[in-house]
Amino acid sequence: MVNINIGDVMIISIIRTIILYAFIVLAMRLMGKRQISDLQPNELVITLLISDIAAIPMQNTSQPLISGFVPVLVLVSMEITASVLMMKLAPFRKMICGSPVLVISDGKILQDQMKRLRLTTEDLCVQLRQQNIFSIEEVQYCIVETNGSVSILQKPEYRQPNAQDMNITIEDNKIETVVINDGKILDNSLKLCQKTQQDVYNILNSEQTELNAVFLMTLDALGKYNIILKEKK
Amino acid sequence: MRRIYIGIIFLLTAFSIAAVETGLISAKADYYISRIENIDKYMRKDDFQKASELCKEVEGLWDDSTKTIDIFLIHDYVDSVSLYLTRMNAYIENGSIDMYFSESAGIKKELTSLKESELPTIDNIL
Lengths: 233, 126
Hints:
Largest sheet of chain B: none
Shape of chain A: flat
Distance between the termini of chain B: 35 Å
Mean pLDDT of chain A: 87
Shape of chain B: elongated
Largest sheet of chain A: 4 strands, antiparallel
Radius of gyration of chain A: 26 Å
Distance between the termini of chain A: 57 Å
Low-confidence stretches of chain A: none
Number of strands of chain B: 0
Strand content of chain A: 15-25%
Oligomer: heterodimer
Strand content of chain B: under 5%
Structural class of chain A: alpha+beta
Helix content of chain A: 40-55%
Order of helices and strands of chain B: HHHHH
Number of strands of chain A: 8
Low-confidence stretches of chain B: none
Order of helices and strands of chain A: HHHHEEHHEEEEHHEE
């Protein structure tokens, strides 16, 4: 290794950090989109390991950069293989992720299952409150999912009636999307609401405003829109 | 399905890098050990002139090959071999035979260790 002074070490560290950042973002992107709270056990392990492995060559310039790359490559390929196997083989998925567990059935807390999950009633109540349920009485079924989140079905008397229950017809306006953000048309959003740029310009003309003056514009398939203009400085 | 191919490519890349590293370090270690043993022979014959020439040559070759070896090995290990070679050369020029052989044994042990630590043996894995 050539003689390196402290300034060079810092530059090497910066360059390595940029390279590893780009590489890890790419690796995580390949593994798929998930929020930390939605991670399955294997995904959480991989995330923790990758962050740990990548940090070593970033901090220690004596460590070859390749010693960070190779384990990340192996971990990503293992994760991709595991996710494919989990998709194809149910027993493998069950072994890695476990199964959803019913903890409230017909309004009755299943204490054995709670003990098995080492889940306290306080933990359960917290999860229920986060779903806007403040009394266990309201719950008919409660399932602890494999990623630790809780799914709840309320008792019929506490459920909100929907349009079908009330026998009413609601006009389908598809999806309302943001079509202009800070003076720029978002083509992907236009596709979602089945509109074209020309439709947007027609609306802007009818409102006698220009594209650059629009801070936010939402539009749905029925042509219902909402425009918020930029504040004048 | 595209992702599984990417996964396989990543795994093959990792194995290829590992194989290249193991092969390269093993070959380099064997080569330098044999070159150092050659210097030892001249030292035993008290041919300091020839030993010094060879040692300088080995030192130059090692310095050139560090550019490749540094990609794979912890730089401190590579630097340690460079230091051994520098000290060996100094002892040859001073005629300190005992000190030279002490350094020679040290560098051969270091190179053997570098080579053996790369091999996927049970003890290394554990």
